[in-house]
Amino acid sequence: MSEATERTRSGQDTTEGAGLAKGHTGRRGGQDPGTRGRTTIADGVVEKITGMAARDVVGVHAMGSGLSRTFGAVRDRVPGGARSVTRGVKAEVGEKQTALDLEIVVDYGVSISDVARDVRENVVAAVERMTGLEVVEVNIAVSDVKLPDEEDEEEPEPRIK
Fold it and tell me: pLDDT tens digit string along 61-100?
């Protein structure tokens, strides 16, 4: 230790004559740099995370209502039209919390209650881990069941038969 620093009885270092105020950490601003400023997370960010997490669950065939899936399938075929991972997802984001509404299509034969529970668990884990927001609710509307013999609306029809 230098001459200007001495150890107190509690074991803490004190600096004399260095011009630091008592209890000052020596950092500019006096705070941890990670706590300075504010971080905002857009609704769309949470919607993308939610859409990806929901699609990862076995038994979820698609996201969105029939109409939104039809428009999405058309948009997917347009050059430059990216596939929307937010289809069927609506998020309301506050400063510390978020609420989510999902519309899903499940595969025939799966337990809808089990799929809904798994979607909730996966979505809550992903959103809270990636954003730090508390997920207060995940509302799920099952808008359709994909039957084994039904054609997939999102697959483009072949131009030549």
Answer: 999 976 544 555 555 555 655 558 999 999 999 999 999 9
> Which residue bears the tokens 């260095």?
18
Distances (CA, A) of 49 to 53, 55, 63, 126: 6, 10, 13, 7
Prediction pTM value: 0.68
**Domains annotated on the chain, with CATH:** 5-35 (no CATH), 43-146 (3.30.70.1350)
How many residues can be counted in the chain?
A: 161
Cα–Cα distance between 48 and 96 in angstroms, integer? 18
Query: Which is it for the CA torsion 11, 13, 16, 22, positive or negative?
Result: negative
Closest CA to 56 of 148, 111, 120: 120
Q: Please state, in angstroms and rounded to a whole number, the distance separating the CA atoms of residues 13 and 97.
A: 41
Contact between 153 and 66 (Cβ < 8 Å): yes
Query: Whole-angstrom Cα distance, residue 111 to residue 125?
Result: 21
Contact (Cβ atoms closer than 8 angstroms) between residue 98 and residue 133: yes
- Out of 30-34, 35-39, 55-59, 90-94, pick the least confident: 30-34
